[in-house]
Amino acid sequence: MTNKRKMITFGPVPSRRLGQSLGINNIPPKICTYSCIYCQLGRTNNKRVQREMFYKIKDIKHAVEKKIKEARRQNETIDYLTFVSDGEPTLDINLGKEIEILKTLDIRIAVITNSSILWKKDVRDDLSNADCVSVKIDTVNKEIWKEINRPHQSLDINKILLGINEFSQDFNGELITETMVIKDMNNKIRDLERIADFIERLNSKKSYISVPTRPPAEKWAIQASEFDINVAYQVFKERGLDTEYLIEYEGNDFAYTGNVEEDLLSITSVHPMREKSVNNFLLKSKANWSIIEKLIKEDKLVEVKYRNKKFYIRKL
Ligand code: SF4
Q1: By residue range, what is the domain housing residue 17?
Q2: Which residues pair with 111 in a beta bridge?
Q3: Is pLDDT above 70 for 230?
Q4: Is 50 inside any structural domain?
Q5: 93 CB less than 6 Å from ligand 1?
Q6: Is the pLDDT assigned to residue 251 strictly greater than 80?
Q7: Is the pLDDT of residue 6 over 60?
């Protein structure tokens, strides 16, 4: 039992999306509907779409309660209990009941899903009690979807997109989206525009753009360039989407520390900065452009152009 409980929960770990997040791993590795080329858990040998029970609800509850106690003993705060699994969390047939029971602990609940079975009403119902749901939307193009996400053969992207749409209309919590941008896959402007057009119709609070930062299942799943992710950002922003990067950066993502270099790197790891914003920032910080040249020379910052404007972005 102890081992099982250890496997079920982890953290709390700092998460840009969710603050201090206590992870709930309600799926044994690696049970998934997809076998994404960028998956950090490797390939999925046995893809499935049928929901089933993996752990007893009471074991999940005990594991979470134990972790919360431990965290509190260490004076650690927990902002979210997050279902983020070594597989697809909605494959757990008890997910709805687990959310209902964990709600009594008075901590917000989040679920990070690949959205592939949101077309099932029981899955949408199960997620409806969560406070935050993050849905994966890497593409809306069938061919690209098959190449990137390598879905279970019974899945249909049009059904999935309808499911996401339907869920977003009924969901009262915070809906966020995540799009992984991969070189030579979904990084063309037309594809990014179609993704942004789709997301624009959802009631999403925030849209994250990410790139693979850990060893992917396939060596050739390479992160898109700084140029591409700037284009993705601009295309999303043009649709009025509140967009941020979700790229790993060890620095402080939000705070102004007073250290000009650190602050520039922190900001540009969340979103690109226009030349004008950089100038304003330098002016406020009583610094000059030589800092930018130095960061570019040190390979920490990259200058990219979009529609004849210069942007600065953290080197991936
Ligand atoms: S959906 Fe998540 S767990 Fe499943 S293969 Fe893709 S990245 Fe891996």
Answers
A1: 2-248
A2: 83, 133
A3: yes
A4: yes
A5: no
A6: no
A7: no
Q: CA dist 282 to 107, 112, 259, 264, 315, Å?
A: 40, 37, 11, 9, 19
Predicted pLDDT at 240 = 96
Nearest atom in ligand 1 to 44's CA: 5
**ω into residue 30 within 30 of 0, thus cis?**
yes
Of these ranges, 5-19, 61-75, 105-119, 258-272, the one predicted with the greatest mean pLDDT is 105-119
Ligand 1 and 145: CB distance under 6 A? no
Q: Is the CB of 210 under 6 A from ligand 1?
A: no
Residue whose tokens read 């060890």: 250
For CA atoms 39, 253, 274, 292, the dihedral sign is negative
Higher pLDDT, 286 or 135: 135
* pTM exceeds 0.85: yes
Domain stops at, among 226, 248, 270: 248
CATH number at residue 187: 3.20.20.70
Which among 27, 32, 137 is the best mutation to test ligand 1's pocket, defined by most ligand atoms within 8 Å of the CB? Answer: 32
Q: Which of 248, 275, 298 is the last residue of a domain?
A: 248
Taking the centre of ligand 1 as the mean of its atom positions, its distance from the CA of residue 104, in whole angstroms, is 29
Domain presence at residue 253: no
pLDDT in tens, 23-54: 999 998 889 999 999 998 899 998 999 999 99
The protein residue with its alpha carbon nearest to ligand 1, atom 3, reads: 87
Cα 18–chain centre separation: 10
- Residue 136 alpha carbon, nearest atom of ligand 1: 1
192 contacts 235 by C-beta, under 8 angstroms = yes
Q: What is the pLDDT of residue 266?
A: 79
Whole-number pLDDT of residue 249? 53
- Residues 53, 134, single domain; the answer is yes
Distant-in-sequence, close-in-space partners of 214: CB < 8 Å, separation ≥ 6: 40
User: How far away, in angstroms, is 88 Cα from ligand 1 center?
Assistant: 7
| pLDDT > 90? residue 81 | yes
What is the number of structural domains in the chain?
2
